[in-house]
């Protein structure tokens, strides 16, 4: 009897534990999850989401959602909207049960919607024209840059100082630098400029010992100064002409920058005080860049890279630089019962070999 009682007690414990485990599993699943049709707000954001000719959707985010929906036995329908802000507003207003494509997680958006675990980490990129055509704009930009003006100003100041010293040494002993302060200073500075350029001054020049010593030092020093200055200018012009006006984020403050209007990129540019021109879509911005209306277009790097590679490969390029790290996630209404099961299914999916293959398929492993 004791043995029977022991087995009975053990069986009861097993049943209780199993029921408790089953209850925990059920608690993680929203009620009527499999019977409700989920409305999903999407927008075109290739290669993460794009509409095919037959009206169906494809892309990295679309494949991910369908994989997750399959794990959770979700029935859903896509609702297309034109902008990310429409997706956020639709979720916040209860129009959509979820929204996804390439939605960046930001503090402002987190105030009105919930986000799942991020599924893709990226950042902003810069598209610029390919420098395969001659252009005077990079040359003009280099010649008006602060560094170039500093070098020119330094040569002028040194030339003026030498001219004043020559006048002080020669004014009482050399008629070429006499005849009043204005005439003497003008003559001495004229000589200093001619000497710096290694042009012939004829018999016009210093006659005193201090004046000739200073003149000799200035002539030798000017040879070195002019050579260094010329090499520096040539290097700047060559690099600028070959690599373009924009070589990284630091150059954005001095050029004409474009971005997609009302995007997280616009918020970033505003926060860094970079003036920018907004466009309705990334395609419109790339068209303006190709037409020379702007010098750089800033947007999410994977989207820029895909579109440039597909439609603008012969005229535009995306720089290697990546900045302002961002994360894509699925947007949900505040307090959505979908969040927990979606998080679990999403993490299971992005940790699988399938996700690595999908990323490689659409982005080449980037």
From TrEMBL:
- Which part of the chain is the Ionotropic glutamate receptor C-terminal domain? 37-357
Q: Where is the signal peptide?
A: 1-20
**SUPFAM superfamilies in UniProt:** Periplasmic binding protein-like II, Voltage-gated potassium channels
Identify the keywords attached in UniProt to this record, alphabetized.
Glycoprotein, Ion channel, Ion transport, Membrane, Receptor, Signal, Transmembrane, Transmembrane helix, Transport
InterPro entries referenced in this protein's UniProt entry, alphabetically: Ionotropic_Glu_rcpt, Iontro_rcpt_C, Solute-binding_3/MltF_N
User: Which segments of the protein form a coiled coil according to its record?
Assistant: none
One Pfam match: Lig_chan
Q: Where in the cell is it found?
A: Membrane
Which part of the chain is the Solute-binding protein family 3/N-terminal domain? 37-366
The UniProt entry lists membrane topology as: Multi-pass membrane protein
Q: What is its main location?
A: membrane
Domain of life from the UniProt record: Bacteria
Task: Write out the transmembrane intervals.
Answer: 147-169, 181-201, 213-237
The record, for PANTHER family, names: IONOTROPIC GLUTAMATE RECEPTOR (PTHR18966)
Name-wise, this protein is: Transporter substrate-binding domain-containing protein
Q: Which organism is it from?
A: Mesorhizobium qingshengii
